[in-house]
């Protein structure tokens, strides 16, 4: 990310913003992903996905509390419809909860809170620099934090056991699922409200279900289709404004 930002001559954040952006980056790219991986160890994928899909709700409430975004009835309705779509799609998986699943869901909710604050607080910093420059500083701080955590916990040693498949998977996750995805996310935060951006997160578990159907033959069920439709309707409601009479 940093070499790309230099190569494209992206505008980097002013000096007075660097510490704040580094803290935001550490909270999201560091703390969020640590909590995320801890959470999925306690609960099922479906229940973890549902907890992750509360992001638009948390973003909307935090934005309203901090005064950075107006809480409207239409936006609230759109968020609720989208989250309901996720519940409908994952309904079957939500019934089978392992012992102690609440711990994973509570941790995941805390992780989502980190991302919600990141969504709400990022926009002024992006506007004073550039999406790529902002992201390079934030992801850099998060990467340094993860390396420190990995060294302190001894988990970094696992890298020595990786084979070619694990390294290629890691490269894909770092470039496609990481850098490229977050460039698009920050570009969206620059152009519209945090809640509207966060509402698109409800597509995540639905898309995972459709991809699983294609790759490993999991069935495409009517609840999955109904949930997908509800998610897109919810996003449309949240992303559009009602016309004045």
Automatic annotation (TrEMBL):
GO terms for cellular component: membrane. It is a multi-pass membrane protein. It comes from the Bacteria. Signal peptide: none annotated. Residues 1-88, 103-238 form the EamA domain. It holds the Pfam family EamA. Its main location: membrane. The chain crosses the membrane at residues 18-39, 77-95, 101-121, 133-158, 170-190, 197-216, 222-239. Keywords: Membrane, Transmembrane, Transmembrane helix. It is found in: Membrane. Belongs to the EamA transporter family. This is Permease. It comes from Bradyrhizobium manausense.
């Amino acid at each position: 990310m940093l070499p790309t930002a230099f190569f494209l001559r992206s505008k980097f954040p002013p000096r007075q913003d660097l510490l704040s952006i580094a803290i935001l980056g550490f909270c999201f790219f560091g703390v969020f992903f640590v909590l995320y991986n801890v959470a999925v160890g306690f609960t099922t994928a479906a229940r973890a996905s549902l907890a992750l899909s509360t992001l638009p709700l948390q973003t909307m409430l935090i934005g309203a509390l901090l005064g950075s975004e107006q809480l409207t009835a239409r936006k609230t309705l759109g968020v609720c419809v989208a989250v309901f779509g996720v519940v409908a799609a994952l309904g079957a998986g939500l019934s089978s909860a392992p012992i102690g699943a609440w711990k994973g869901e509570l941790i995941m909710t805390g992780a989502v809170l980190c991302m919600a604050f990141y969504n709400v607080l990022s926009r002024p910093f992006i506007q004073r620099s550039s999406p790529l420059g902002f992201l390079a500083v934030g992801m850099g701080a998060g990467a340094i934090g993860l390396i420190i955590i990995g060294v302190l916990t001894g988990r970094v040693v696992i890298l020595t056991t990786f084979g070619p498949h694990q390294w290629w998977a890691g490269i894909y996750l770092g470039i496609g699922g990481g850098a490229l995805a977050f460039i698009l996310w920050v570009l969206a935060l620059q152009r519209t409200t945090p809640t509207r951006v966060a509402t698109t997160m409800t597509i995540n578990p639905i898309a995972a279900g459709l991809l699983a159907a294609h790759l490993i033959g999991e069935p495409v069920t009517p609840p999955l289709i109904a949930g997908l439709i509800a998610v897109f309707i919810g996003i449309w409601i949240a992303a559009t404004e009602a016309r004045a009479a």
